[in-house]
Q: What sequence folds into this?
């Protein structure tokens, strides 16, 4: 079995994601991943290094997938509220896969991952700022709206949602946030 075989990596990542979703950081070991992926212990450690590196790689992988989906949604030909709703609903979808209380526990255990996640989302933030500026030029967003501040407000909502350690209705909170945001910045 080749160490760089993408099927092997996908199996490891999928199993790790399931374990993170069900148990968070604790409640499983690298041996659990090894057994379910069918790898020898030394092979698994050669591929992933450590539990922290494995968790980091899996989080970055899935956050990158959703960052790309959210970035693509910015170019949809829909009204402002629908585009913002789509973006934040994608975040909610990710949080159904990786519940906020699990992410919260992961970030407490491995605080360096918070910076890595922020770095992944940085590209999306730049695209979101350009999206807001473009909508201002088209007269769909009030001229006085500062794109940098609007992005920081959206980021704060996203970070708050990621760090929640209790169950909440993410979809309703997202819908309410989009309504408040669009009423505040929309030019119509």
A:
């Amino acid at each position: 079995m080749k160490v760089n075989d993408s099927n092997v990596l996908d199996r490891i990542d999928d199993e790790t994601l399931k374990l993170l979703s069900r148990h968070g950081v604790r409640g499983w070991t690298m041996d659990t991943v090894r057994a379910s992926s069918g790898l020898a212990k030394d092979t698994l450690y050669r591929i992933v290094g450590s539990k922290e590196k494995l968790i980091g790689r899996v989080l970055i992988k899935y956050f990158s997938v959703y960052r790309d989906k959210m970035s693509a949604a910015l170019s949809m030909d829909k009204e402002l509220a629908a585009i913002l709703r789509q973006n934040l609903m994608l975040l909610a979808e990710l949080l159904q896969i990786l519940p906020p209380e699990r992410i919260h526990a992961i970030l407490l255990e491995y605080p360096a991952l918070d910076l890595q996640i922020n770095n992944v989302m940085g590209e999306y933030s730049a695209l979101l700022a350009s999206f807001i500026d473009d909508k201002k030029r088209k007269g769909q967003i009030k001229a006085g709206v500062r794109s940098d501040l609007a992005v920081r407000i959206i980021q704060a909502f996203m970070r708050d949602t990621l760090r929640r350690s209790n169950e909440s209705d993410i979809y309703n909170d997202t819908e309410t946030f989009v309504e408040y945001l669009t009423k505040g910045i929309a030019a119509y």
About this structure: Residues 13 and 169 are 27 Å apart (CA to CA). The mean pLDDT is 87. The radius of gyration is 19 Å.
